């Protein structure tokens, strides 16, 4: 079945540095991907919608200059956390939809990235 | 704004007994998901419910959807320790443009004890 690969699975960085997370659809083309953030013991919150070939759409309260999203190809979206601070430490998860609008459409989640900012 | 209310938030289960998790949502939708999450892991898809009256079963888990009541339930039959995890429901707004843009419930932490 279709798989969404997310890397890295875990990253530890110093405060002030930038971290890039990749989300890749392995055997299908994903014109749209989604990025979520999950703080410990909490639910998933949608951060942004990543659209291939165009600007991402950010949810209210999410800083677009801090969380840079690039969806340069039909199989890859990247989330860059710029100038990371300890409060950005969280579990980041991407998802991608396959065959949108079709009766057999499906939604797949990546394996997640645990970001720890020291 | 779509709101998804899940309850209970914590459920202590005794092995062998039956339990139900409820998921209410506030606006029209006919696409509801149930996921399982183990600590430190991503989401494992359990069920996708796409129409009113949909019922799906897999092992000890059964999910149903009532779009008129805006309610989905996840029923656990004869709980076993392996079912200990956090369970999330998630609702997709009824809009083609935003398909896949899920609103999650708060999650139900399930602990199954002997």
* Structural Rg of chain B: 14 Å
Largest interface: A-B, 23 and 21 residues
Query: Average pLDDT of chain A, to the nearest integer?
Result: 92
SS summary, helix count of chain B: 0
Rg of chain A, alpha carbons: 14 Å
Could you explain the architecture of this structure?
Chain A is an all-beta fold and 118 residues long. In chain A, 0% of the residues lie in helices and 53% in strands. Chain A contains no helices and eleven strands. In chain A, strands 2, 4, 5, 6, 9, 10 and 11 form a seven-stranded mixed beta sheet that branches. The mean pLDDT of chain A is 92. Chain B has no helices and eleven strands. Chain B has strands spanning 4-7, 10-14, 19-25, 32-37, 43-49, 55-58, 61-66, 71-76, 85-91, 103-104, 108-113. The mean pLDDT of chain B is 92. In chain B, 0% of the residues lie in helices and 53% in strands. The termini of chain B are far apart. In chain B, strands 2, 4, 5, 9, 10 and 11 form a six-stranded mixed beta sheet that branches. Chain B has a five-stranded antiparallel beta sheet with strand order 1-3-8-7-6, with no helix packed on it. Chains A and B meet through strand 5, strand 9 and strand 10 of A and strand 5 and strand 10 of B.
Task: Explain briefly what this protein structure is.
Chain A is mainly β. Chain A is 0% helix and 53% strand.
SSE inventory with pairings:
The complex is a heterodimer of chains A (118) and B (114).
Chain A: E1 4-7, E2 10-13, E3 19-25, E4 32-38, E5 44-51, E6 57-58, E7 67-73, E8 76-81, E9 90-98, E10 106-109, E11 113-117
Parallel strand pairs in A: 2-11
Antiparallel strand pairs in A: 1-3, 3-8, 4-5, 4-9, 5-6, 7-8, 9-10, 9-11
Chain B: E1 4-7, E2 10-14, E3 19-25, E4 32-37, E5 43-49, E6 55-58, E7 61-66, E8 71-76, E9 85-91, E10 103-104, E11 108-113
Parallel strand pairs in B: 2-11
Antiparallel strand pairs in B: 1-3, 3-8, 4-5, 4-9, 6-7, 7-8, 9-10, 9-11
